Amino acid sequence: MTAPAIELKGISKSFGPVQANKDIALRVMPGTIHGIIGENGAGKSTLMSILYGFYKADRGEIFVRGEKIEIPDSQAAIRSGIGMVFQHFKLVQNFTVLENIVLGAEEGALLRTSLGRARALLKQLSEEYELHVDPDAKIEDLGVGMQQRVEILKALYRRADILILDEPTGVLTPSEADHLFRILEGLKREGKTVILITHKLREIMEVTETVSVMRRGEMTATVKTAETSPEELAELMVGRKVLLRVDKDAAKPGETVLDVHDLKVRDGSGVERLRGVSLTVKRGEILGVAGVAGNGQSELLEVLGGMREGKGKVFVNGEPLDLTGAKSDARTRRKRGIGHVPEDRQREGLIMDFHAWENVGFGYHDDARYNRGLLMNNDALREDARAKIEKFDVRPTDCWQKAKNFSGGNQQKIVIARELEREPDLLLVGQPTRGVDIGAIEFIHEQIVALRDQGKAILLVSVELDEIMSLSDRIAVMFDGRIMGERLPSETSERELGLLMAGITDTEHDHTVEEVEANLAHSSGKAG
Amino acid sequence: MDKLPKWADVALIPAINLALALIVSGIVVTFIGQDPFEALVIMVNGAVGSTYGWGYTLYYATNFVFTGLAVAVAFHAKLFNIGGEGQAQLGSLGVALVCLSVPWPHWTLALPAAVVGGALFGAAWAAIPAYLQAKRGSHIVITTIMFNFIASALLVYLLIGALKAPGMAPETVRFPEGARLPSAQEVLAVIGIPFSRTPLNVSFLVGLLACFGVWLLMWRTRLGYEIRAFGHSEPAARYAGISPVKITMLAMLISGGLAGLMAVNAVMGEQERLIQDNVLGAGFVGIAVALMGRSHPVGVLIAAILFGALYQGGAELEFETSVPREMVVVIQALVILFTGALDGMVRGPLEKSFLRFSRKPKPGVPAE
Predict the structure, then answer these.
(1) Which chain regions cross the lipid bilayer (chain B) (predicted)?
(2) Number of domains chain A contains
(3) Residue B318 to residue B330: CA distance in whole angstroms
(4) DSSP-based three-state secondary structure for A515
(5) ipTM of this model?
(6) A327 and A455 both lie in a single domain
(7) Tens digits of per-residue pLDDT, B135-162?
(8) Domain limits at B258?
């Protein structure tokens, strides 16, 4: 029997009182794709960081191809043939593909030798694994899918035969993700070992052979993918049964609440991020805006939420909104009945260093009920915080904890509690479940649907296609600052939405991956 | 959980920093052939060993309270106001103009007017860099430091011109008798406590009031809430409808006003006329005071008293021994270096050792 490509025995790692990894055992056989799945904070990333030499385990042993080794730093990991593709790429933006690939692995005093070698290898690899990349293109001109390929090539150039990918599909369109999986299959055929870290059950089911589930720092199970189901995996991740589909009745749309006409936004450097967006949202419906991150969805939410200025016409309940000037700020928007769950709760929605009770009034701190004359009524804030913590099941239940000490899901519950409690006529929601664990996702989705059923209008922006498909009553797809089309969830498919997300409106015919990529690269070159 | 318990953050770290500074100072003193322990005794005795020492210590501390609070308020908005020096100089101009323009019948009337004058002039001097930062994005560190030089030049210009008193020196005439603030000696004599003749005066109480006022502002008012929110995250402030321009302006105006108040103590309480160098680096010490006091009014007060003691003790050391004046400055600089700049050097290892002690798994981190 062959030795496992990687074997971990009794790996433990603590950060102070928090035990991130508890006595982890893992065996990954060579030439397989092994999935590691778990909620946020389950310890997946910590475990992989130990394997890549970023952290040192408190206890435990690491074997690579049957040999016990120490991995004090990432150089050692690379020497042992371990390569890592991070969620956030580590590429030099104004270097070419080739320069990025040899960076840190140059041989000799002259660049020319390494570049020549890299070019030859690149040609060979691109033929073997469908890893087509123009070696002389600058990184900043490439789309995210391409950039990810460069990261994979970087690892292969360093002779990695064990490749770890951390949440690789977070930034990809469905067709790009499919292509990535084909690349991984190719690598597997060549005898390479792939470890895929993800929280998406669908991906695990599609490409892996074995899957390990992590929960709260422990490896709860390792199973053959063919012998399990998404429901079982979800249960293993959360520790109880979870509803994977959103349970909701058909929408009963009423009169129009939000009416957007030809909305345009320029960013600080003068690039047009919204190029004339028009859409409407009615009472009692959820309009989902799908799209690959960076195609103007953030700007759409920000301009509607009063965080940046724009041009065009926007009406809420028939009354125009100011898009520039003093009355275009978030405070005025809230007074007009617009709630906003922002995309980035840690940077925008919460003050991480504030106590939970200081955060429940954030944005509404002018409300009479939080004030007593000139001074703020901190007792009222704390009382309100306790009520919301109880109602929205926020844990820990201590309103004196700072926001940064809550998990992602609980932070989001604080934001949702604050924005939903005021029963806004229009709720803007950005990435409601990003970085949120499955258990809390269920809860947050229920809350959003409940608000819809109260007859409120909801504009939902998410890069998670599954979420858009299951929550929305109507779907608008954004690409390069424009709405490419609107579809009903019951009458569309992921494939069709994927093409729209890549800017291809002719969804009747088949398109090659190359076409999709060319379109994406074209747009990101323009926007970047 | 925070990484350190609160008491360690506010008391232990400054204490360790101070001890380190004193040890290094002791080594330096030994090198120049003096007994470090004797020097320490002289410094401590000189600063707090008598009512004379206390008087000077608290007089200096009053200056540092104002400049320290000024830096602290700006810090909360993540603005690094290093223009306390210039704002205090302009404040001194404001105080002098108030004192000289009216024949004040009694100090109880002159003091509030001087407070307003000093604060307004200090705030006005901070307003220009604040506006440039808020509207044009000019970095506040650069502009405030340039404004220090401009303030100093402006003062010289006025003191050799429009405001100059007859005679040789570049200074104004003495303030009228009615604008003279009672000293601690006079105040305490009323209730029968003997106190040495020192420059300590009723402005000290103004300083305490300012500490309370800043606490009230930062932790009990909407404005303070908005300043702190803006300081932690500008995108979050925009999300909450807090105007970055407004907060930048207001935080700097308050900061400059507090720096300007220093003149009430130094110019009105001690010098009793406007002279050229009336701030003497207190604006910069305020940065160290705010850092060491972790931008909290109570911390600022304690740190200000510590630095006051250091100033006074240093002066005694220079007087009593052959430790040169420059050496005293070196010791003060070491304290600033260790408490301000090298804070992280102690913090890191201390956090680690605290973590090691609290290693026992806590029942916290509950399930979702």
Answers:
(1) 12-33, 53-75, 110-128, 140-160, 200-219, 247-268, 274-291, 298-315, 327-346
(2) 2
(3) 12
(4) helix
(5) 0.84
(6) yes
(7) 999 999 999 999 999 999 999 999 998 8
(8) 61-293
